[in-house]
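User: quick one, sequence for these tokens?
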């Protein structure tokens, strides 16, 4: 095994021990953030949707990555007011009501309360001088709102016009993290992707539903689908989000439109999005057609040098990543790298990532870190 490879717990194959860190102009973003903290810069941070699957992960991520926080507030609906959420070992946050919260004096807000709620409250926070990083779909395709994955298009953060930055959809984020090094090296013409998306993509209620249905199914109890259109336990459902006029779903449309906005408007993308009975971790089978000749070795080298990507691909039993193993991890994992001989210059691979972390909370916190590192996050007066 080469010196840069190690085994991950629970995995049979080797992968690189430390993925390349996020850098800007050759400098580590994490180091730049730490320098700001040493200089006494700390920020007042609001987490909106703090009781949800993404919001809870955001709070965890802020703590784990030691984001320079001077004060944190947890916001949710009136239903959750007073509920307690731990912020690290020492602090407990009492949830406050978003509806009546005044963002004046708050520096940054990480939003994940759902699109309709963000539509109303994100502009309200921005108008109060609080920079919003929004996880919902509401602002993603607006031309004057940057849609950012820091490993892919951090330069978009230089054009914040409305005080709002959008976080892409989870299935898009992991795909563009993996595609970026390939696009830089071989120029992508076309992508065909099939997803295998976990129920946590549908929030806390999606997770509860899989658990409940699994239990009921095992004892032959009646199952009435609530959040999904059909039974999700012991099943797969080829439908996420609403249907569009051309027969695609909105989730599939998001993968197409967002990839073009983030990576390159000329790339053709075709997606089929499927819900699977997995709690955490989205998987994707991705076929890519390039302008230039590609080799497995060349693609593997490109992945290995890319920020946020880990290659786990040993072509033996267990030498690939599964969603169960990626839950709680930060990286986008790439496995099963093969030439696709059905098209000229074709490559196929398997891509897995934790949808609540890189697909949502981590990406949002990395955007905040990049803003701090680039000195783009101003302290509210
Ligand atoms: P979730 O588990 O259902 O959580 C929703 C959160 O929004 C809860 O904190 C909820 O608070 C809050 N909320 C709902 N109505 C509200 C209101 N009227 N005012 C204030 N807060 C309200 O959903 P989630 O998975 O965290 O997703 C949240 C958003 O992130 C969605 O737009 C989703 O599309 C997006 N997103 C999710 C993922 C993912 O993998 N899950 C990935 C990327 C983006 P209460 O507890 O008080 O109801
Ligand atoms: C899902 N991509 O998995 C969505 C989450 N926003 O349902």
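Assistant:
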């Amino acid at each position: 095994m080469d010196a840069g490879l190690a085994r991950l717990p629970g995995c049979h194959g080797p992968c690189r021990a430390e993925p390349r860190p996020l850098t800007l102009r050759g400098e580590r973003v994490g180091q730049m953030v730490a320098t700001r903290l040493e200089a006494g810069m700390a920020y007042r941070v609001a987490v909106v949707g703090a009781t949800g699957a993404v919001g809870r992960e955001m709070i965890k991520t802020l703590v784990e990555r030691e984001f320079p926080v001077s004060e944190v507030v947890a916001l949710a609906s009136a239903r959750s007011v007073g509920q307690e959420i731990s912020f690290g070992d020492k602090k407990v946050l009492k949830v406050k009501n978003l509806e009546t919260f005044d963002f004046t004096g708050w520096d940054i807000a990480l939003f994940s309360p759902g699109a309709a709620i963000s539509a109303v409250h994100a502009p309200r926070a921005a108008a109060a001088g609080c920079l919003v990083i929004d996880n919902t779909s509401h602002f993603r395709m607006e031309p004057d709102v940057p849609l950012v994955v820091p490993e892919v298009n951090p330069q978009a953060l230089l054009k914040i016009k409305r005080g709002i930055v959008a976080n892409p959809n989870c299935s898009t984020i992991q795909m563009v993290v993996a595609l970026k090094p390939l696009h830089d090296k071989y120029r992508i013409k076309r992508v065909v992707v099939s997803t295998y998306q976990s129920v946590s993509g549908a929030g806390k209620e999606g997770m509860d539903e899989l658990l409940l249905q699994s239990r009921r199914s095992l004892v032959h109890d009646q199952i009435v689908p609530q959040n999904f259109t059909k039974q999700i336990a012991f099943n797969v459902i080829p439908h996420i989000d609403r249907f569009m006029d051309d027969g695609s779903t909105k989730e599939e449309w998001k993968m197409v439109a967002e990839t073009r906005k983030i990576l390159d408007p000329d790339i053709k993308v075709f997606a089929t999005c499927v819900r699977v009975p997995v709690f955490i971790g989205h998987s994707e089978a991705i076929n890519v057609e390039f302008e230039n000749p590609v080799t497995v070795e060349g693609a593997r080298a490109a992945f290995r040098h890319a920020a946020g990507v880990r290659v786990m691909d040993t072509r033996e039993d267990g030498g690939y990543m599964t969603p169960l193993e990626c839950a709680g991890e930060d990286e986008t994992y790439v496995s099963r790298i093969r030439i696709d001989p059905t098209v000229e210059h074709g490559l196929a691979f398997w891509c897995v990532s934790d949808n609540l972390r890189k697909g949502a909370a981590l990406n949002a916190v990395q955007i905040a870190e990049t803003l701090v590192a680039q000195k783009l996050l101003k302290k509210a007066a």
